[in-house]
Amino acid sequence: LDRTTGHLTYAPSPGFIGEDRFKYYTIDENNPALGLENTVTVGVVPIRDLKQIAVDRSRSREVDLVFVINNSPSMAAHQGRIAGNLKRFRELFDARDLDYRIGVLTTDFVNADQNRGADDQSYYKKVRSVEIDASGKPVVDNRGRPKAVTKHVASNGTLVTLPALAQPWVTPKTPDGVFAELVKVGTNGDSNRTAFTSV
Q1: What is the pTM (predicted TM-score) of this model?
Q2: Helix boundaries (H) for 131-190
């Protein structure tokens, strides 16, 4: 209470929201025998200020993604559509000058067979495909026809890879054709999808 101005200042406890009451007693300084008890009720509500937070991403442009591609028997058309739209997807990253690595897993997961040795496990599914070179273009035979090849697609939570890839992930320098071939993981996986186990 400011005795000069008569202003009363109230400061609630930090974090308090609700109704607070307190009493005070006023007297006439010229006649102290006269006084009056007063009650003040204060409603305390939060003040919500709109805040804008600017995030500085200039120092970190690294992004790691994992595509989990469904390789169950009904997914051939879907894989084709994914492969066809990857160029547009990458353009969004390239426009922001992001340094990314994208890996590919399947929804198929094969547990270890306890009756087999480590080198004799059937962790890979054989997928017929077209052989591609490091630029993502099909490799052709003497007659100019694309060469067929059998890809070994991992089914044990290991990233899918191709002979054309130095590492089992896509970077900004990876040709679109290589990325498109990487997501074509075949349709001979288990219908019982285990994507979270794979990851």
Answers
A1: 0.58
A2: 176-182
